[in-house]
Amino acid sequence: MNFETVIGLETHAQLQTESKMFCSCPTKFGNDPNSNICPVCTGQPGSLPVINEKAIRLAVKTALALNCKINNESVFARKNYFYPDLPKDYQISQFEMPLAEHGYLEIEVGGQIRKIGITRVHLEEDAGKLVHKGSAGIKGADYSLVDLNRTGTPLMEIVSEPDIRTPEEARIFMEELAHILRYLEVCDAKLEEGSMRCDANISIRETGETKLGVKTELKNMNSFKAVQKALEKEETRQKEVVSEGGKIFQQTLLYDEATSSVHPMRSKEGSHDYRYFPDPDLLPLYVDEKTIEEVRSSAGELPMDKFKRFLSQYGIPGQDITVLIESRHTADFFEETAKISGEPKLSANWIIGDVSAYLNANDLSLKDSKLSAAALSELITLVKNSTVSGNSAKKILGEMMKTGKKAKELVEAMGATQISDEAALVEIAKKVVAANPQSVEAYKNGKEAAIKHLIGQAMKETKGRANPQVIEGLIKKELC
Amino acid sequence: MSISKETVEYTAKLARLGLSEEEKGLYAKQLNDILGYVDVINSVDTKNISPTASTRLSAGKQKTTPMRQDKTVKFDGIEKIIGNAPAQEDNMFKVPKIMGDDEQ
Ligand SMILES: [Zn+2]
Predict the structure, then answer these.
(1) Does the distance separating the beta carbons of B14 and A270 come in below 8 Å?
(2) Please, which of A218, A371, B42, B91 could form a disulfide with A200 given CB 3.0 to 4.6 Å?
(3) Do B75 and A52 touch (CB under 8 A)?
(4) What is the SS3 string spanning A386-438?
């Protein structure tokens, strides 16, 4: 039997706001337990939620980037269930009338563009955190402790259509979505840290069949790789079951990263009856066309469009562009450097190479570093007109990023100016030739590479400041 | 619409309410009375009228739900909130065992 796999993804993303969705408590984590709570997010009687305007704008921005239609009017509803991390006994979410619907996201799989439908984008609030005592997990615990710092943090849910056909496609979809969220500065999109979470629905059907098969839901994938891995495992399991004449039952499965396997989660009958109804504490949300247009213009160019433009405008390789457009800040930084220096290729090389290496080594982002586009351009120009050597420039860059000093200043202070003056180098060339008779001999016997050693010695003598082309010419003259 | 004893039992279970047999019968009757009244209201033709979310909205005084700027304010009565809970530990709310021993 030939099977077709059908996958749909539900993504939750924590929005980068200062305050919570419905109250003014800070959203910062890592603080002491219950240090960011108030009557609203702990569900005290008589408290009333008030919507965070920034959260709405961030969700609208995302929805526009996902080609959705924004509903001018949407409704917040109560999703009712009992769990100790949910103090109100309901989560404020959106159900019948979400903020946005009917979008799509284009992803590239094996060189082909695939268009994955986006069913809806809506807003809700996060739940709290539980600490189980007397056991490693909830199972066997004697009791639990509740920390409500996270309760009420704005969450955006993005639901895809069941348009995804392979586990690999699912991973690529998540990666591209995360990229967009980071690029739009909506969410830092780290699956490992839980600021972005993914639930995957998967079913199989006989090829050609149009009806959907019974699906299972996968949870607890904490990396993009895990999304693909978990789906591959479950795809294989379903195919085996059906091939052997068995049936798939609707259930929720947890992925275990350590063993890379999936296990059924405890299921309680009737626990999925959420009894949604419009939250009487909140009037319908009205997002007018003016607001939508404001958000649209602030969102600027999207990654996919930027990729295409960089390709044609700067003629740099696709994989370099992918790195440059990882964040909007980096993309802008590159364009500014390219413009000032007039050297897009060199600018890209510096940013992807030494600048990134320094940032990674020091766990910094470009935004937090002291490097400006103008400063990098100056350095690029100094290398281009041979004032400094490439090697010295690398050292100077590190110093620039650490201190924020200008390249010229550092070049002078470090005495790193490249020596291109023949008169200043001719003595060095003579000295090196005299001191290395073996290399001279080898060169004269036709071993051209031997000159490399002589150049290296000259560089050593000048602490890397000799212009390599000039010194090579001078040494060759000496050897004649 | 008629509310059976089973519906009352199911609803009570969802709401974690323990009801006596007597109460189940009583609530089934009361809920039927309430829904019966809703049926009366439902008999009005509202085909071309959208539901009223708020009288303030329909009176045209307000277009949308009020919103706030993304500014943080620390609440200064946190200890009272925590102190209000039946049990605490390490500044957290202490709750009984969530999963029963028979569950897996
Ligand atoms: Zn709060």
Answers:
(1) yes
(2) A218
(3) no
(4) CCCCHHHHHHHHHHHHHHCCCHHHHHHHHCCCCECCHHHHHHHHHHHHHHCHH
